[in-house]
Amino acid sequence: MDEEYDVIVLGTGLKECILSGLLSVDGLKVLHMDKNDYYGGESTSLNLNQLWKRLRGDEQPPEYLGSSREYNVDMIPKFMMANGTLVRVLIHANVTKYLNFKAVDGSFVYNKKKIYKVPATDVEALKSPLMGLLEKRRARKFFLFVQDFDESNPKTHAGMNMDTTTGRELIAKYELDDDTIDFIGHALALHTNDSYLDQPALDFVKRVKLYAESLARFQSGSPYIYPMYGLGELPQAFARLSAVYGGTYMLNKPQCKVEFDENGKAIGVTSEGETAKGKKIVCDPSYLPDKVQQIGKVARAICIMSHPIPDTNESHSAQVIIPQKQLGRKSDMYLFCCSYAHNVAPKGKYIAFVLTEAETDNPETELKPGVDLLGKVDEIFYETYHRFVPTNDGSADNCFISTSYDATTHFESTVMDVLSMYTNITGKVLDLSVDLSAASAGDEQ
Ligand SMILES: *[C@@H]1O[C@H](CO)[C@@H](O)[C@H](O)[C@H]1NC(C)=O
Ligand SMILES: *[C@@H]1O[C@H](CO)[C@@H](O)[C@H](O)[C@H]1NC(C)=O
Ligand SMILES: *[C@@H]1O[C@H](CO)[C@@H](O)[C@H](O)[C@H]1NC(C)=O
């Protein structure tokens, strides 16, 4: 391995694969290695045998669950917004041709002990049982404002300066009540906490608008899409892309030790006694444990069921967001469900997840309010994993480390981390002004 690479990427998780694909397209010489003999790292997808091996040890999966290879269970389950940033990245990188998407059936929010469809337009607001009569009218006015909003046209800003007006002030203007703010902030704008209320309202309005526009895109019950056969298809699509642009992939490379010069700058990676030279290292937290710190952990329940989540209008695929306040918690809880309709399980089977940022050491008790919403489950596994963030920013040591995946069941925070890493690695902002309709061929089916 005498040649020098521009970038050596360690780990084939979603974030690392997206980055190696984008960097390859930029013309950089990329070497991508993984200590595992499979794609995906923490964000891999498992068949039934692999799932059992990971969570039940030597036991065999019961026969009634059907064929192992018909399961594609994402370890990091996330839906993408149809017009969202990840879809723009996929179009920019031209990987949509390797992927086949299908719309997600439903998007729901939990409010006062019940599950409701998330209303996102003036018409839906008026129909929604989520709000009382007067509140419906106020919400309708708010949604009309968002629908008409055009950042470049101040006439649509309802007399507000969008850079100084806060989210809280905007909401006060429409006199929305706390429950409405809760679902708009967490289930439409996809904020994970309420700090947005004290930030300029522009970003908040754009997020609500993105939700409504994504919802309109495929005329389904949600703004989300998800690949057939699960997210495991994504790392592989980017690996193929990287290969087309000359990138090299190597799986099953033990150790993958990052080498540094006397100034603490990364200069390469050693595996099995051979060192590959590289100017920059991109990796997940497991490859550079000295440069990350633990910031929390995710508790999750992974379930196999024979029915959709109750009260979700028989949706084969659905997200339910339980805003923190509804359960008196500090973090939101998320329900994710997908089925054989997306080819992630055999006919008649559904895969469901309940996830949250852990606030205790007892996932079973903590996740109970979410698990109770699933009804009877065939099998359930509880798991907790630690979340790490880098303690460096790459400028001094040339090491660019991703943040561990959070508990959200959508891609918004994941893709923001990828874009920030891309900017720190390349010194430029990724141009995402793409033609969104380019993704439509694979989407509609
Ligand atoms: C709240 O969410 C924002 C992003 O929406 C994030 O930057 C911030 O760190 C979060 N704060 C807490 C306390 O989790
Ligand atoms: C339930 O789903 C059907 C399509 O499967 C849709 O036509 C209907 O509007 C949905 N109902 C609600 C309340 O979302
Ligand atoms: C990128 O660099 C900035 C500035 O040094 C830093 O604040 C940020 O955390 C870095 N982003 C990532 C994903 O490391």
Largest sheet: 7 strands, mixed
* Helix count, DSSP H or I runs of 4 or more residues: 12
Cα-based radius of gyration, to the nearest Å: 22 Å
CATH superfamily of the largest domain: Guanine Nucleotide Dissociation Inhibitor, domain 2
Helix content: 25-40%
Report the β-strand fraction as a percent range.
Answer: 15-25%
Overall morphology: globular
CATH class annotation of the largest domain: Alpha Beta
| Whole-number tally of structural domains | 3
Distance between the termini: 45 Å
The helix-and-strand class reads: alpha/beta
CATH topology of the largest domain: Guanine Nucleotide Dissociation Inhibitor, domain 2
The beta-strand count equals 19
Low-confidence stretches: 441-445
Annotated CATH architecture of the largest domain:
2-Layer Sandwich
Small-molecule binders here are: 2-acetamido-2-deoxy-beta-D-glucopyranose
Give the integer mean of the pLDDT values: 93
Would you give an account of this structure?
- GO terms for molecular function: GTPase activator activity; Rab GDP-dissociation inhibitor activity.
- The protein is an alpha/beta fold and 445 residues long.
- The chain folds into 3 domains: 4-44 and 232-292 and 389-429, 3-Layer(bba) Sandwich (FAD/NAD(P)-binding domain), CATH 3.50.50; 56-105 and 294-387, 2-Layer Sandwich (Guanine Nucleotide Dissociation Inhibitor, domain 2); 118-218, Guanine Nucleotide Dissociation Inhibitor, domain 1, CATH 1.10.405.
- Helix content is 29%, strand content 24%.
- Strands 1, 2, 10, 11, 12, 13 and 19 form a 7-stranded mixed beta sheet that branches. The chain has a 7-stranded mixed beta sheet with strand order 8-7-15-16-17-14-18, with helices on both faces.
- Helix 1 (14-25) packs across helix 11 (412-426).
- The longest helix is centred in the middle third of the chain and has 18 residues, at 201-218.
- 49% of the residues are buried.
- The structure holds 2-acetamido-2-deoxy-beta-D-glucopyranose (3 copies).
